[in-house]
Amino acid sequence: MQDNQTDEYYDHRVIKVDPKQSPIRIDKFLMDRLEGTSRNRVQNAIRSGAITVDEKEIKPNHKVKPGQEISIIVPKSMEDDEGVVPQDIPLDIVYEDDDLLVVHKPSGMVVHPGIGHRRGTLVNALAYYFGQHDLPVMEGNQRDRLGLVHRIDKNTSGLLLVAKTDFAMTHLAKQFYHHTIERTYNAIIWGQPEETSGTIELNVGRHPRFRKKYTAFQEGEEEGKWAKTHYKLIEPMYYISLIECKLETGRTHQIRVHMQALGHPLFNDEIYGGDKIVKGTVFSKYKTFVEKTFNLIPRHALHARSLGFIHPRTGEKMHFDSELPMDMQNALDRWRRYLSGQKQKLNID
Asked: Among 146, 204, 286, 296, which residue has the least CB neighbours within 10 Å?
């Protein structure tokens, strides 16, 4: 019996061993049940802890027994017919070793190929980089994935984690599945939340009418997938605020959707209502100021600032930080000057 759950970047499968099953090595048992999977890949997944039996880690020579429950977390295939064209696009590599890369993705770059984006993506750049440096694309590490275990939106900037081996990819996928990867984002939002910190726990899923949008479903509604975002106020400026968000889950558009549900859409987020004046006056002078600030950051104001994870091979805790990109810094500076000017007019200290 098999029970499958899927997410964007990995599959979670549960196989319950038949009561009449004779004892057999687990790697051989799974090879017969996982289509297109080699024995080596199964063994890598076992060693990484991504395959467990009755919630316990095992060795590749473990023999399955009747009634046992096998849990499997595997990176999902995203292959298409066209493959990936390697392109000489510069990569901003923050860290690299034999197992993984941490790269900084600029806003405006799509992560992986799709309809309308066959070239110019991060994966096109990785394909070229891997080829030029003779880096292995391990079995099961599909060409259109090249080790991606998560992604960020086209117009979100920040850090991304890339696995260079099948073992690392499986190990990192397991960490994402168990929500132990630490991800911190900075966002500029409209308005100022009443609380200085809080947690948003609302399911996120595709909008029922607008298929390119996602939406948050209120408590009690069963649509969408469970999503949890922790936020903290960093710099309140009445009209807008700089916040920090920590993701417990990684749903598509999660922060953007959750902040909109809270009544504070991201600044200049055209999909979720942040590209118009949400807080402030309707006077033409203020409107002109906001429009000029939009021009400084012609995208939603979101940056994947930090990443924390356990290194697949060494077991070491790794942590990486990045600075706010210039467009977000410029927008914040402009708002600071505006707020300072408003206070001077009112003789406020």
From this structure: 286
Is residue 83 situated within a structural domain?
no
Query: pTM of the full predicted structure?
Result: 0.80
> Of 121, 142, 177, which one is at a domain's C-terminal end?
177
DSSP codes joined into one string, 144-197: TTTTB-----TT-EEEEEEESSHHHHHHHHHHHHTT-SEEEEEEEEES--SSSE
Range of the domain at 286: 182-345
Determine the Cα–Cα distance for residues 157 and 325; give it in Å rounded to an integer: 8
Contact status, residue 140 vs residue 41, Cβ threshold 8 Å: yes
Q: What amino acid occupies position 85?
A: V
Structural domain count, the chain: 3
Q: Helices then strands (H, E): number in the chain?
A: 7, 18
End-of-domain residue from the set 177, 195, 229: 177
Burial (CB count <10 Å: 0-12, 13-18, 19+), residue 24: middle
Q: Is the dihedral of CA 284, 288, 289, 293 positive or negative?
A: positive
Phi, psi of 253 (to 5 degrees): 60, 25
Q: Is 153 a catalytic residue?
A: yes
Q: Average pLDDT by consecutive 10-residue portion of the chain (349 residues)?
A: 50 84 86 75 81 87 88 63 77 94 94 75 89 55 63 94 88 87 96 95 87 82 85 96 93 94 96 95 90 96 97 96 97 94 62
What distance separates the 2 farthest-apart alpha carbons in the chain?
A: 83
Pair 328, 186: CB distance under 8 Å: yes
Q: Which of 99, 153, 269, 327 is catalytic?
A: 153
Q: How far is CA 206 from CA 12, 95, 220, 300, in A?
A: 21, 34, 17, 19
- CATH number for 10: 3.10.290.10
